[in-house]
Amino acid sequence: MRIASISKAMTGEVLTALTLDKKVKLDDPLQKYAPAGVTLPPAGQSITLLNLATHTSGVPREMPGEKPKDTPSSSGPMSSNAGAGCPAPRTSSPRPARPVFQPGFDLLADALSRAAGKPYPVLFREKITAPLGMKDTTFTPTPAQCARLMEGYGASPCVDTTAAIGSGGIYSTPRDMQRWLQELLYPQNEARRQLRDQTLRMHFQRADLSSLRGMDVAGQADQLGLAWVRMEPGPNAPEIIQKTAGGGGFLGYAALAPRNDVAVWVASPAAAALTTRA
């Protein structure tokens, strides 16, 4: 099944891996990785990789124009959508945080690809899926994988989803998701522990932001990290680091309670989930 916006958390992990490799810095401007002749954004303060990964870039939710046929969202490479409908972020802190930007994470994936000098699917495989043996996690499912595709309510077709490569294009399985979440709880070695710690690090407090919209779906968002959202512990709830998702016919939720050694991933057919929440 397509895990939709949980893909963003994996994009954040690739970003972390490249920062540890000293290929990029979180405060690098997106402009540094733009194609020749492209200015990002067209005016105002520069957008950083951290802005893209924490929903604070000001990039709109969708690109203007008609969505390409059989694609899960309207996005694309930096050269084709750079600057289109892309306001600069606030020039002074605090910044606004807006919901689940699609193009922002696709621009981030494109920038990471350029920084690493290799296609993003190759980079994704090297940093995420290969070390964990996630053989069914991909942007380009085979006919055999498509034959096993779980179908939710109003499911999208089983197609190449590289058009949403950083924001929501990943296909995976429960077994692969278990491997990924288990690694976030129990890293294999010290290098993987550093990767985990930096991936789950929070970068903005709620009070740091001038506004916050669409981020309280699963509960109050107290801190924002690299796609992940942290909810502080309360009298009847532990600290939770979570990411919500919706797409491919399902609503999804990945959550970690690190101090309780618990991780969960839930996917429910969209219509049933909406009925339950109503």
TrEMBL record:
Keywords, ordered alphabetically: Carboxypeptidase, Hydrolase, Protease
Keyword field contains Transferase: no
A single GO molecular-function term is:
carboxypeptidase activity
Please report the stretch or stretches of sequence annotated as the Beta-lactamase-related domain. 1-267
Q: Where is this region: Disordered?
A: 56-99
List where Polar residues composition bias occurs: 71-82
Which Enzyme Commission number(s) are listed?
Answer: 3.4.-.-
What InterPro entries does the database record attribute to this sequence? Answer: Beta-lactam-related, Beta-lactam/transpept-like, Beta-lactamase-like_AB/R
Pfam families from the UniProt entry = Beta-lactamase
Q: Which PANTHER family match?
A: BETA-LACTAMASE-LIKE 1-RELATED, PENICILLIN-BINDING PROTEIN
Family from the record: Belongs to the beta-lactamase family.
Name-wise, this protein is: D-alanyl-D-alanine-carboxypeptidase/endopeptidase AmpH
| Taxonomy of the source species | Bacteria, Pseudomonadati, Pseudomonadota, Betaproteobacteria, Neisseriales
| Gene of this entry | ampH_2
